[in-house]
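Weekly sync notes, structure subgroup
Attendees: PM, AL, DS (notes)

Item 1: joint prediction request from the bench team. They want all four components modeled as one assembly rather than separately. Inputs as received:
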Amino acid sequence: MSPRAGLDTHTLVIAAADIADEQGIEAVTLAALAAKLGVRSPSLYNHINGLQGLRTLLAIYGLEQLYTMMSAAVEGVSGDIAVHAMSQAYVDFARSRPGLYETTLRAPELENVPLELAGNLILSLMIHALKAYDLGEEGELHAIRGLRSILHGFTSLEHKGGFGMPLDANISLSRLISTFIAGIGNMKDVGKG
Amino acid sequence: MSPRAGLDTHTLVIAAADIADEQGIEAVTLAALAAKLGVRSPSLYNHINGLQGLRTLLAIYGLEQLYTMMSAAVEGVSGDIAVHAMSQAYVDFARSRPGLYETTLRAPELENVPLELAGNLILSLMIHALKAYDLGEEGELHAIRGLRSILHGFTSLEHKGGFGMPLDANISLSRLISTFIAGIGNMKDVGKG
DNA sequence: AATATAAACTAATGTAATTAGTTTTGCAAT
DNA sequence: ATTGCAAAACTAATTACATTAGTTTATATT
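Output from the run, pasted for the record:
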């Protein structure tokens, strides 16, 4: 299987995502990836720009997958239902692809155009869903920050086993989103500073 | 300075926390720590249980410091004010000691008694602050999860530069907490499932 | 002063990322 | 079909780090 393994960038990213999901993000090394693909690690450099490059590609891939899930979830719904659906999709994605999700947060290069693009897609999805609440320009931005904080924080804590109690996490999430929506008037530009 | 540098475990942890804050958590290596302390890296093993042991100690130290700040913040206040104050203290701590804060989340050993203890102190502080809202037993647990998600998520996103917009983050936080409090009735056991 | 212990050291091993330089393959153009 | 080239794989070597084993040395206690 040695000569011409027929690799390409996408194959590497898929395989690396698998490793991340199965063995954790720490296990995503070029050595492990090369072994999984039946190749020596320097060969990977023909397709990716080192470990850092791979991590950036993983982040982009993860964001794209996340966007796909969230986008499907809000298809044809709006208002509170859309916010709940989007949130549930976010958390479900992180649960089903824990390693891949984590790569979206450890992106080494902040100024990577495709990475920013993928992030902006998700952002615009959230913005669209929050339009229903008439928060004003700044209010909307604060609300986005809030929702992102909630989703990322919840996901992150759940992943690291931070929710020790035997209490249904989906209920926790659902109530948290309901809480957020119920109080969302506090995000408005007027009436609060 | 070679013979008998006079190190001890606490000195190592302090120095490692400095590295984490100044150069990021990735820079916390035994090699770097040893260099900073004027010692060869194997010498560190007299005081810590390898890199993993150091990380656990860092996490404990970070949680203790965080607890100290939060605890001071709620001194003598209660209700909404306490929740706001505690939240602000949490975020301020993460801002002032970004590396140390991050170590509290990457704890390798989940079943470490002192680590759990330090975490439980913070938890009990939150529980106490939320007593004011009469949420019931389960409601309280869901609310704790919610507040932790918010604080960790907000902190984490801010740290990674996720809040691109030129919009005051303290206002975002304040509104998020107000939103949470305003809707907290949704955490109650009755009236929602 | 003698000694035991703990703290430092040197030396060595294993893993990983990365670079340089080489071989080989497959396709494209003749 | 043959030639030639670019890409994809390789080997070899370097660097950095964690870790272990075994040695030396300082210091506190007797």
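Discussion: Chain B is about 65% helix and 0% strand.
Action: AL to compare against the crosslinking data before next sync.
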